[in-house]
Design brief:
- It comes from Streptomyces camponoticapitis.
- The chain is built from seven helices and 14 strands.
- It is an alpha+beta fold.
- It has two domains: 3-116 and 266-270, no CATH class; 122-264, Gcn5-related N-acetyltransferase (GNAT) (Aminopeptidase, 3-Layer(aba) Sandwich), CATH 3.40.630.
- The strands form two sheets. Strands 1, 2, 5, 6, 7, 8, 9, 10, 11, 12, 13 and 14 form a twelve-stranded mixed beta sheet that branches.
- The N and C termini lie far apart (42 Å).
């Protein structure tokens, strides 16, 4: 895989020309900045805290700034979202310019959250055979009952309230069921692991999000099985690449599966 070429393709399709990620969300280019303002449910990067309005993600997806234009562009985004009473996120990548953009965001009142690795792999080169422990089965999430099971895993695995992920998935399944796929690993009648995949139209990238396993079931191959499940589905639907914002915990697993680290992404959050 040509890492520089793939990263440039990712920047174009998933940032500069990004489709809206949920019902009611609007993506617009203002000067050298592409931002999303949400009126409904959405948000890349969940689980974890995310600037939301009724569950929708608000923030800056891409920018092409230099030392002369950066501060004015930052001030303009603060004015836009603050006028709406919204907290928002500037999704900063380590290859973005200018090179001191992180310092400028901090000086403007943004707070950085933990960085994650942008990891990408070609679907054709990843394992797609699903292997789970004895007594465990994977169940596709297609209705409200499945969403509730996934939300339960989310709450137990990440220690965060389940309401956001429940509302988000229900809205997506209702408005655009082809834009998302999710699965839950069941040990008998108990959900023990879950993950979802975003399938944005008009792009070559499927995004893997929210992979989590409850305590007591970790280290038994469920995360890997859910990656394989989604890899096979993404390939069947014609997506060439899989993309993950990987934490320190998932990064070693993804690297062993064949993902490569192309950049680092850090959410910078501004609260009115």
């Amino acid at each position: 895989m040509d890492n520089e070429a793939v990263r440039a393709l990712f920047d174009r399709q998933m940032r500069r020309e990004a489709p809206a990620d949920g019902p009611g969300a609007v993506v617009e280019r203002v000067g050298a900045v592409v931002r999303q303002t949400a009126a409904g449910v959405g948000g890349p990067g969940a689980p974890g805290p995310a600037p939301e309005a009724d569950g929708g993600w608000n923030g800056v997806l891409w920018s092409d700034l230099d030392e002369q234009s950066a501060d004015a562009a930052i001030a303009e985004q603060i004015r836009h979202f603050t006028s709406l009473g919204l907290e928002f996120e500037w999704k900063l990548y380590s290859h973005d310019t200018p090179h001191d953009l992180a310092r400028r965001l901090t000086a403007a009142g943004f707070t950085p959250e933990p960085p994650e690795a942008l990891m990408i792999a070609e679907a054709a080169g990843l394992p797609s055979e699903v292997e789970v422990p004895d007594g465990v089965r994977l169940v596709a999430v297609t209705d409200a009952a499945g969403v509730e099971l996934l939300a339960e895993v989310h709450e137990r695995a990440f220690g965060t309230d389940r309401s956001h992920i429940r509302e988000r998935l229900l809205a997506q399944l209702g408005a655009a069921p082809g834009s998302v796929a999710a699965a839950v690993a069941m040990a008998g009648d108990v959900p023990v692991s879950a993950a979802r995949m975003e399938l944005p139209t008009g792009t070559e990238f499927a995004g893997l999000w929210g992979g989590g396993t409850v305590p007591g079931w970790r280290g038994r191959g469920l995360y890997r099985a859910l990656v394989a499940f989604r890899t096979r589905l993404a390939a069947e639907r014609g997506y060439r690449y899989l993309q993950v914002d990987a934490s320190d915990q998932s990064r070693p697993i993804l690297r062993r599966l064949g993902f490569e680290e192309l950049s680092t992404t850090t959410p910078y959050v501004h609260t009115p």
